Automatic annotation (TrEMBL):
Belongs to the complex I 51 kDa subunit family. Residues 39-194 form the NADH-ubiquinone oxidoreductase 51kDa subunit FMN-binding domain. Keywords: 4Fe-4S, Iron, Iron-sulfur, Metal-binding. SUPFAM superfamilies: Nqo1 FMN-binding domain-like (SSF142019), Nqo1 middle domain-like (SSF142984), Nqo1C-terminal domain-like (SSF140490). This is NADH-ubiquinone oxidoreductase-F iron-sulfur binding region domain-containing protein.
Length: 393
C-alpha cells in the first residue's frame, strides 16, 4: 500500500517545516470555502461522518441574524483504541490551527477553542506560541472520558457544566458554547479543511475512491503496538492491516468501541461508509483492532462492554440500567450460563431509546460480537472456551 503523505507530509511539527511543506496560509470567503468543501465531499473524521460543508453552512445561517459564532476543535480522543488525533497534533499541529483559523475567518467567529487530551497539550501550546495569528485560540483540557468527546458533551464541559451528551432539541449549530451558534469539528477534519482551502476540491479527490475521496488517519492495533497510518479513502481493510504488519486472518473491531466486529472473510471491504454499510459498520473514529491469537473474542467484547457500561452518563434508563445489565449478562454467559436469549431481549429494549447515541453504539458492538463469535457464545453457554482449548476463531 502506497500511503499518501498529506496530513503527515511535514518532516517535523515546526511552523517552518509546515510553511515549507504546505506553503502560505490563506483564508477563503465563506461562499468559496463552502463550494470547495461541498465539491470535495469531505465528511467529519470524528466518528459520525457528517458532510462538513453542511455543518459549516448551518452555523453560518444561524449566525446571520447577528452575534458571532464559536469554533471548537475536538481533539479529546476519548476512544481508547484511537491515537490518530494525538498523532496529528504531535506531527502536524499547524494544519489543525490553519483549519480553526480558516473556519473562524469564514464565519466571523471570535471564540476559538482547541480541546485536547492533557498528553497532547504541551505540543499544541508550543505550536501556538510559534505563530502570531493564533493568539485567540484557547487550549482546553478534555473532560468526561469516553462520552466526553461527543460534541454536546464537549461544549457542556467548556461551559462549566457536566461533560455529558445532551438529548438535543436545539442543535449546537444554532445554540452551543455560551449559547452562540457553534461549529464543532474533529481536529483531523480541520486539517483536511486547511488542505482543501490551499489546493482545492479537485486536488483532494485525486486520492481515494469516488465515494470516499481524500485520505483518512487510521489507528491499527492488536498483535503489535498501535500505529497510525494515513490511507487513501476506500482502501480495503485487509490492505491496511497488512501494511501495518497485523494479521488478516483474525476478527477485527472496526470503528472503535462503538464500532462492529468483522469476521476475516469480510476484511476485503473498503474502509469507507459505503464499503462497510452492509456490515452495519462504519469507519467511525478510524480504528482497526485485530483480535490477538489466543484471545477469546467474547471475553474481549465483555471487557469493552464493561468499560462502556461504566461510561454511562446515567441520564436515562437504557444507559443507567440497560448497559450494566448487558455487561452483567455477558459475564454470566462467559461463566457458563446460557443467557443469549436474554442478551438479545435486553439489547432490543436499549437500542434506539437512549438520550444520546451511547446505548445504540454499545448495542451495535455487542450484536456484531454475538454474530461473529457465535461459536464462542455457544461454547461458553456449555461451559467451554474455544480460545482456552486452542480452537482457532
Amino acid at each position: 500500500m502506497n500511503a499518501p503523505a498529506r496530513l503527515l507530509a511535514a518532516p517535523d511539527p515546526s511552523f517552518a517545516a509546515h510553511r515549507s511543506t504546505f506553503g502560505a496560509f490563506r483564508t477563503l470567503p465563506l461562499d468559496d470555502l463552502l463550494r470547495e468543501l461541498e465539491a470535495s465531499a469531505l465528511t467529519g473524521r470524528g466518528g459520525a461522518g457528517f458532510p462538513v460543508h453542511r455543518k459549516l453552512a448551518a452555523v453560518a445561517r444561524a449566525s446571520a441574524g447577528g452575534g458571532a459564532p464559536a469554533v471548537v476543535a475536538n481533539g479529546s480522543e476519548g476512544e481508547a483504541l484511537s491515537a490518530k488525533d494525538a498523532t496529528l497534533l504531535a506531527r502536524s499541529p499547524h494544519l489543525v490551527v490553519d483549519g480553526i483559523l480558516l473556519c473562524a475567518a469564514a464565519l466571523g467567529a471570535k471564540d476559538l477553542r482547541l480541546v485536547v487530551d492533557e498528553r497532547a497539550a504541551p505540543a499544541v501550546r508550543a505550536a501556538l506560541a510559534e505563530r502570531d495569528d493564533a493568539f485567540a485560540i484557547l487550549v482546553a483540557p478534555a473532560r468526561g472520558g469516553f462520552t466526553g468527546g461527543e460534541a454536546s458533551a464537549l461544549v457542556a464541559g467548556l461551559d462549566g457544566r457536566m461533560a455529558v451528551p445532551a438529548d438535543r432539541v436545539v442543535r449546537l449549530s444554532e445554540r452551543g458554547l455560551r449559547r452562540a451558534p457553534t461549529l464543532v469539528q474533529n481536529v483531523e477534519t480541520l486539517a483536511h479543511i486547511a488542505l482543501i482551502a490551499r489546493y482545492g476540491a479537485d486536488w483532494h479527490r485525486l486520492v481515494g475512491a469516488p465515494g470516499d475521496p481524500g485520505t483518512r488517519l487510521v489507528t491499527v492495533s492488536g498483535t503489535r503496538s498501535p500505529v497510525v497510518r494515513e490511507v487513501a479513502g476506500g482502501t480495503a481493510i485487509r490492505t491496511v492491516l497488512r501494511a501495518a504488519g497485523e494479521p488478516d486472518d483474525r476478527p477485527v473491531l472496526v470503528g472503535g468501541f462503538h464500532g462492529a466486529w468483522l469476521e476475516p472473510a469480510a476484511l476485503d471491504a473498503a474502509l469507507s461508509p459505503d464499503g462497510l454499510a452492509r456490515h452495519d459498520a462504519s469507519p467511525g473514529a478510524g480504528v482497526l483492532h485485530v483480535l490477538p491469537d489466543g484471545r477469546c473474542g467474547l471475553q474481549a467484547t465483555g471487557d469493552i462492554l464493561a468499560v462502556l457500561a461504566a461510561a454511562s452518563t446515567r441520564q436515562c434508563g437504557p444507559c443507567a440500567n440497560g448497559l450494566p445489565r448487558l455487561a452483567e449478562l455477558l459475564r454470566l454467559l462467559l461463566a457458563g450460563q446460557d443467557v443469549r436469549g436474554e442478551l438479545h431481549r435486553v439489547a432490543g429494549l436499549v437500542d434506539g431509546r437512549g438520550a444520546c447515541h451511547h446505548p445504540d453504539g454499545t448495542v451495535r458492538m455487542l450484536r456484531s460480537a454475538l454474530a461473529v463469535f457465535s461459536a464462542d457464545a455457544d461454547a461458553h453457554a456449555h461451559g467451554r472456551c474455544l480460545a482456552r482449548e486452542g480452537v482457532a476463531a
